[in-house]
């Protein structure tokens, strides 16, 4: 069977997702079973994978889905606990004191706080923390999910203390011992390249977040209302990415996102409190009242305006649970501390399922869900809650989690069947590799422009930048070597694309939507995040193309033209919007005496 035919067949499960979930707007609970059946059919009848292997991959998928549901439950429980204790009301007031402008709030919470949490934990935890917090502040559920997905790009390559690089890239490349004698040195070099590419592509991410929010969820459905805060958005972007790049190139891949997010938070919140680059009081942007929202925007998670039983809670006490989440995540992820070993000491493992060679395992204590539940219990005592309120928090959290389970128990098994489709009697490689082979055969010297999209496709399928890097890093290195360029930059493009793919990853969207009870609207979210993903992958790929071909083709090459074109378009849109804003004059005041 030809490379092109195998690539097309490998694409069919993804086409099913695109048609039913994104195109026909079916809920994931209906679309993903079809995609699962397509993947199973291909594995059994085309790749000729033994039925035991397909069943084992499906069971592994169910185990992974269970771990995701555990994380979702913990995140929802923490939010409901804070709601019942009155903490959310105090936090909401605190953000109003910084700025009542929703554009400013979403940048601080999604971009900066989300980057810090991503650096500390990964696992999609930023969406599980930032998305419900935004809903708690009064954001529509869908607006919160879209924001949470778009920022799942720049910080992701260095999430979970560098796991996508240290585990994903290093594991992928180490399959070929002829590449180097020291993979850690090579991977550290690639991490620096990844950070540079992310800084370039990530510069506009905060602006994308606010522009998408005002366009899809604002009264006037206007991109320009979001673009008006471009100065603050760029300031917040660089406040995170400058320390991020420095740390990646000086200290390595463990701490760029964590340090970048933390430094960015300190700088931006301090500046915002002093009014730096903040919107004028008469230009504060907010959503319309909730009664006028499109019903599609709202989830089943309802935030009630509950005050603390004393009538007043300090800001320090209200924020303490989120501070504890960040602290515990950092302490339990650092290899230099004993907590990591303790948290990973208990492993539940199902080895060699059905004699297939597939093993499924998870570490209950290490999962972020355990941190969320622990902090929820601490919050019960810290905030002096009553038993009835805490009981309501648990009951509501169970109901919301169960509603998300249907979509995930088909989404993740489909992914596992897709990833474990190699080794069949037909002799074909696993579906993701056959798909990448087909693209590489068509791309030739233009491969750098496509490498980010392959990385993104891997994350879209697997729901993980780490897994995408494991699958494709060696493949990308080999293609780079074959076309005669610095292969480390091609691997860096893979890692960047794999991070950007989290914006559109089905099971990440399902999980983030489930946290706020937005079940069945996953396709609508992905349609809104497709363009930011395309921008991110294209710009990073163009810059990468320019870098790897600079020595042979000079500065004036296709990659440079595309990258400059994107930059010029961005400047033009910002400048045009700024000029229009300046032309809008305030209404003339009426002289009451002369009017009489």
TrEMBL record:
Family: Belongs to the lactate permease family.
Biological source species: Cytobacillus oceanisediminis
Keywords linked to the UniProt accession: Cell membrane, Membrane, Transmembrane, Transmembrane helix, Transport
The keyword Transmembrane helix is annotated on this UniProt entry: yes
Topology with respect to the bilayer: Multi-pass membrane protein
Described purpose of this protein according to its UniProt entry: Uptake of L-lactate across the membrane. Can also transport D-lactate and glycolate.
Record has Lipid biosynthesis as a keyword: no
Subcellular location(s) of the protein: Cell membrane
Protein name: L-lactate permease
């Amino acid at each position: 069977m030809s490379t092109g035919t195998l690539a097309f067949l490998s694409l069919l499960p993804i086409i099913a997702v695109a048609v039913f979930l994104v195109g026909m707007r079916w809920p994931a609970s209906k679309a993903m079973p079809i995609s699962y059946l397509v993947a199973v059919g291909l594995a059994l009848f085309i790749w000729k994978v033994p039925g035991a292997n397909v069943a084992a991959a499906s069971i592994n998928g169910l185990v992974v889905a269970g771990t995701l549901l555990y994380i979702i439950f913990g995140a929802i429980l923490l939010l409901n606990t804070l709601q019942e204790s009155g903490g959310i009301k105090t936090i909401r007031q605190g953000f109003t004191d910084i700025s009542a402008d929703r554009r400013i709030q979403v940048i601080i919470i999604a971009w900066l706080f989300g980057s810090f949490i991503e650096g500390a934990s990964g696992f999609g935890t930023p969406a599980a923390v930032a998305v419900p917090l935004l809903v708690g502040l009064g954001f529509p559920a869908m607006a919160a999910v879209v924001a949470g997905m778009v920022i799942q790009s720049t910080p992701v390559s260095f999430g979970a203390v560098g796991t996508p690089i240290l585990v994903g890239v290093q594991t992928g490349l180490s399959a070929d011992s002829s590449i180097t004698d020291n993979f850690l040195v090579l991977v550290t070099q690639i991490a620096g390249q990844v950070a540079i590419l992310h800084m370039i592509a990530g510069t506009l991410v905060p602006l994308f977040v606010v522009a998408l929010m005002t366009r899809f969820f604002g009264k006037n459905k206007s991109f320009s209302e979001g673009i008006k805060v471009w100065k603050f958005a760029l300031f917040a972007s660089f406040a995170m990415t400058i320390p991020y790049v420095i740390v990646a190139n000086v200290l390595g891949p463990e701490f760029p996102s964590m340090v970048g997010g933390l430094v960015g938070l300190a700088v931006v919140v301090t500046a915002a409190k002093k009014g730096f680059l903040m919107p004028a009081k008469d230009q504060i942007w907010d959503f319309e009242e909730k009664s006028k929202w499109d019903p599609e925007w709202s989830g089943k998670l309802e935030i009630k305006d509950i005050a603390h039983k004393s009538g007043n809670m300090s800001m320090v006490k209200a924020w303490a649970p989120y501070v504890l989440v960040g602290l515990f995540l950092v302490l339990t992820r650092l290899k230099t501390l004993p907590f990591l070993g303790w948290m990973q000491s208990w492993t539940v493992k199902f080895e060699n399922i059905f004699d297939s060679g597939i093993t499924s395992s998870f570490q209950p204590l290490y999962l972020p869900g355990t941190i969320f539940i622990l902090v929820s219990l601490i919050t019960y005592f810290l905030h002096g809650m009553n038993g009835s309120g805490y009981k309501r928090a648990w009951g509501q959290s169970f109901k919301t989690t169960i509603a998300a389970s249907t979509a995930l128990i088909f989404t993740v098994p489909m992914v596992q069947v897709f990833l474990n489709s190699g080794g069949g009697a037909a002799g074909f490689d696993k579906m993701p590799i056959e798909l990448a082979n087909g693209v590489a055969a068509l791309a030739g010297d233009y491969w750098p422009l496509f490498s980010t999209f392959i990385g993104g496709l891997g994350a879209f399928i697997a729901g993980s930048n780490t897994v995408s890097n494991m699958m494709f890093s060696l493949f990308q290195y080999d293609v780079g070597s074959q076309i005669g360029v610095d292969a480390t930059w091609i691997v860096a493009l893979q890692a960047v694309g794999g991070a950007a793919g989290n914006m559109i990853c089905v099971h990440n969207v399902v999980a983030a939507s489930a946290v706020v009870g937005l079940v069945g609207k996953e396709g609508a979210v992905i349609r809104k995040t497709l363009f930011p993903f395309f921008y991110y992958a294209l710009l990073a790929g163009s810059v990468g193309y320019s870098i790897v071909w600079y020595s042979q083709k000079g500065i004036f090459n296709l990659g440079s033209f595309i990258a400059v074109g994107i930059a010029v378009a961005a400047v033009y849109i910002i400048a045009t919007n700024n000029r229009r804003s300046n032309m809008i004059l305030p209404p003339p005041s009426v002289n009451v005496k002369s009017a009489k």
